[in-house]
């Protein structure tokens, strides 16, 4: 049961008598006026006993709905061939057909229904235009002050971008002809990078996916290839059994490409992608050696404007990254491993029930740490991974204290549902509970079976479930089948995945964790600072140790640390120069300890890293101190014109 019934996201297209098998989209982007217009052609097949097609939508203006005159055999010829589904010539043929019959659709707030359809297979065309209030698209200025737009994971998915069947099991292929203004470029999900036809840029995909995974980015960006310098390897000539609905699958053929995959990065003039370009090939290679063959044919990266309110967003073949990840002398590059891992976890294997998003996010968060471990040459890297887990537990603890209890269970015993429970709850945009409960379930598996055996099992998991939607039960059953410790695995699943409370987690190290012990030593110093403060000796671990120290200072029962001590701590560790994560935690400490003299640092953080600022705005307001509240309001007003609509709504509700 949900906490607020009107916060459930309805999946009305699950009640449709027709399933959309293929989409053809002809879209024009007016980036100055901030709207898309065009047509969506849906190739449908009857799957129920009735005669009604249902498409999900939100905040779209539908101008006309027509049935394209075509016999069922003609429709079948296209649907029966994945080669034909990606043909530009057939796209032009179908979208240019003139003989049509006008239909009389029925509109509801969350869907459009077309009733009394006569054929078992048909093609319908929906002409429409997006609305400014639609939440699927972020219309923002890039960091050079130029207009751009992106899809960055709205609570309503893509329903404000085009009408479609928005449910995990209603998968389809698509083609897109996109017109953008002169001088603008575009990146989308799909099988390749698109090519110009004279009528627009043409994209397609032949992989069956929910249309919620479709994403695009349009802007005036530079573009560079990301080179790979890898040794030749022995091809993987295995043909792996497919359990998914048929489509051209990389597991159904030998893999000769190895870890190398076409990659490019889009970025604005004010951004330096050199660090990014150096890290990506190594990260992809590390993930490939753990999980096996690539499941997408290319990876495009877009470094988003700093005003976009997410750190990363992965879709099939397109990854959007916040510039905050690249900030500081020890940037948060490990986050790239998280987003790249989504190609396997979340895109190639996804949750059958969107209430179980841990199946995507928990695995990707775990892989973020594993990839960092495999790429590191640091002698104490296992201890560092343990320290990262300690830091993550602090985040989970904070989330569980501040997030609605109804959002704290990450799995459902009911695999079939016609709503995403609390799917429109605003806390869903900021809560990391599905990420972290899923992560800790896997961390506990490491304790039970060991890291290397678990990584071997993860590769088997990918090969077994590739292309499929699964449930928590199927996931847990798989690991129980792989390992003898079935009762322990099921017990951990019950604690971390099915419980709505915060599980107790004990940091039991097999040996003394020197990195954690050093953090404790520093904490004791700052409780009663005397003499010169100590320093962390290992540069590779220092960012995570500083983060752990700041977390533990925030946890102290005696809340007020003298402002002078906070200033000394900032001067000593310089957390604002390490990376955006340590900078953010330092700002939390400044606000919690009400250090008025350090408020300019908080203001600067909010201006530089708006994507990470939602929590800080709330904390500034809740101090009930006028100078702190003024910083929140003035900073927001300074940024307001650059922020996307969703984030503006959240912040306005917090501070006004």
From TrEMBL:
It comes from the Eukaryota. The keyword Nucleotide-binding does not apply. It is a lipid-anchor; GPI-anchor. The keyword Disulfide bond does not apply. Gene3D superfamilies: 3.30.2010.30, Neutral Protease Domain 2 (1.10.390.10), Peptidase M1, leukotriene A4 hydrolase/aminopeptidase C-terminal domain (1.25.40.320), tricorn interacting facor f3 domain (2.60.40.1730). GO terms for molecular function: dioxygenase activity; metalloaminopeptidase activity; zinc ion binding. GO terms for biological process: proteolysis. It is found in: Cell membrane. InterPro entries: Aminopeptidase_N-like_N, Aminopeptidase_N-like_N_sf, AOPep, ARM-type_fold, M1_LTA-4_hydro/amino_C_sf, Peptidase_M1, Peptidase_M1_C, Peptidase_M1_dom. SMART domains: Leuk-A4-hydro_C. Its cofactor is Zn(2+). Keywords: Dioxygenase, Hydrolase, Metal-binding, Metalloprotease, Oxidoreductase, Protease, Zinc. Coiled coil: none annotated. Residues 514-655 form the Peptidase M1 leukotriene A4 hydrolase/aminopeptidase C-terminal domain. Belongs to the peptidase M1 family. This is 1,2-dihydroxy-3-keto-5-methylthiopentene dioxygenase. It comes from Daphnia magna.
